[in-house]
């Protein structure tokens, strides 16, 4: 069905303000989950369709169309076989997963490195298998068709199943994915009555966020000016838009991270902190940033930028804690350094990352940051503000630990009945459309305690990282 054949009864909802950015409309996200059991593809499809067909969840079955002020969501009043709730594809192979030339090379938590971190795969190898040759990328792939904004692809083997859920980033961020997966599992388990309603189905609860700042953003004055942004784009534009990107999957063993954490906490004690506190994210981000910047000269300016969910900070006034918010709800924190600064003790760098998260995640600082976003929203929409020097090397992080994709229990869809949870043995995050210029997604922690990271880097930089990892000891 072409866009011109839309049903006139469709409910038309403009994209919420913070969803309507060039970045989010240019990316399709794919959450890939590998299960070492045969799953019933029809149960997966029908349960997801039932979830999307629920009253306030119907926006996940919307079609994207060009509106007066940007993209609009056209939500069918009723889903039919001709206009289904989700895009769906089931591919079946009459062989074991280990006999498939691509699937057999996908990593697994069961064969993860035990002592030191390692590059264990390249997501580009399994993109076509997991996403399909005709997978959507950016806004144009949706607006030019009657494709729903979310979709499911199931790849079946005799002994395993790959489940891929995809969505246009303008629909949802990582914590929204958690809401979708958790609610999907409830439907699978016959517990639909426990699925919460969504907040902000047809109105934007964040429509005034950033209009009432009471203090300046802490890093205000360090953001790239329009001239600085132009300079940055001139220096890095080819790499961002056209340069070759390389992706890799990294596994960080639980024992290695524990050693890193102990070293980092001792660094802080040695610096005079009596009761230091660091999260796994603080330690991983500090350690990995040092590796990511290791090829640079000492005086090179660098910026570490992290995405953070605003949901908890907004619970008191904008987002009721008893309802789910499936949309983009992100703020950011940045640490500005030089390459030489990165050589400080690991714990001190991790401590600065923790301080930035605490400070920039406060309600007042979120309001201040989003006021800057609004002031710079033309013409690309509410894009993140970049802080640092125009000649900086910039890397970005997104941590999906709290999304808990690794704990998505699809036991209710198993062909062979089981009374124990069934979690994925591997999780991958694949990005269609534009690729991060130099960015990393911590896809989470598996049931063995190992962390997994996937990254997009300019061509040639992963080879340098691999050499460092082969000699890596906690420090």
UniProtKB/TrEMBL annotation:
One of its GO terms (molecular function) is acyltransferase activity, transferring groups other than amino-acyl groups. It comes from the Eukaryota. It holds the Pfam family Transferase. This is LysR family regulatory protein. It comes from Bimuria novae-zelandiae CBS 107.79.
């Amino acid at each position: 069905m072409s866009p011109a054949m839309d049903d006139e009864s469709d409910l038309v909802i403009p994209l919420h303000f913070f969803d309507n950015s060039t970045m989010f409309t240019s990316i399709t996200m794919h959450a890939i989950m590998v299960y070492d059991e045969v799953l019933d593809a029809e149960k997966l499809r029908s349960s997801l369709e039932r979830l999307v067909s629920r009253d306030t969840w119907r926006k996940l079955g919307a079609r994207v169309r060009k509106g007066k002020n940007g993209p609009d969501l056209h939500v069918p009043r009723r889903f039919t076989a001709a206009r289904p709730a989700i895009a769906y594809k089931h591919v079946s192979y009459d062989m074991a997963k280990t006999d498939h030339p691509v699937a057999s090379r996908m990593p697994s938590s069961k064969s993860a490195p035990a002592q030191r971190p390692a590059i264990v795969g390249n997501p580009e190898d399994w993109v076509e298998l997991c996403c399909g040759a005709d997978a959507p990328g950016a806004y144009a792939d949706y607006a030019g068709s009657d494709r729903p904004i979310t979709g499911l692809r199931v790849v079946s083997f005799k002994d395993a199943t790959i489940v891929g859920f995809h969505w246009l980033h303008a629909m949802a961020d990582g914590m929204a994915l958690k809401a979708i997966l958790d609610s999907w599992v409830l439907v699978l388990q016959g517990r639909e009555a426990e699925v919460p309603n969504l907040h902000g189905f047809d109105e934007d609860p964040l429509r005034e966020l950033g209009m009432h700042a009471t203090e300046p953003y802490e890093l205000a004055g360090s953001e790239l000016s329009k001239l600085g942004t132009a300079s940055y784009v001139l220096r890095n534009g080819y790499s961002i838009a056209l340069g070759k990107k390389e992706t890799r999957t990294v596994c960080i063993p639980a024992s290695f991270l524990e050693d890193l954490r102990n070293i980092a906490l001792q660094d802080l004690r040695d610096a005079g902190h009596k009761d230091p506190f660091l999260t796994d994210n603080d330690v991983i981000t500090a350690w990995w940033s040092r590796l990511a910047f290791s090829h640079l000269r000492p005086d090179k300016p660098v910026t570490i930028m992290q995405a953070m969910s605003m949901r908890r900070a907004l619970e008191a006034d904008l987002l009721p804690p008893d309802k789910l918010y499936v949309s983009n709800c992100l703020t950011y924190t940045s640490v500005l350094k030089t390459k030489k600064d990165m050589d400080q003790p690991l714990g001190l760098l991790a401590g600065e990352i923790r301080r930035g998260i605490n400070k920039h995640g406060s309600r007042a600082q979120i309001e201040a940051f989003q006021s800057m976003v609004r002031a710079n929203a033309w013409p690309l929409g509410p894009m993140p503000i970049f802080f640092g020097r125009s000649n900086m090397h910039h890397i970005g992080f997104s941590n999906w630990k709290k999304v808990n994709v690794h704990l998505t229990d699809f036991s209710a869809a198993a062909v062979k009945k089981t009374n124990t949870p069934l979690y994925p043995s591997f999780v991958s995050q694949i990005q269609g459309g534009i690729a991060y210029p130099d960015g990393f997604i911590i896809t989470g922690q598996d049931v063995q305690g190992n962390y997994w990271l996937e990254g997009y880097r300019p061509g040639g930089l992963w080879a340098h990282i691999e050499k460092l990892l082969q000699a890596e000891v906690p420090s």
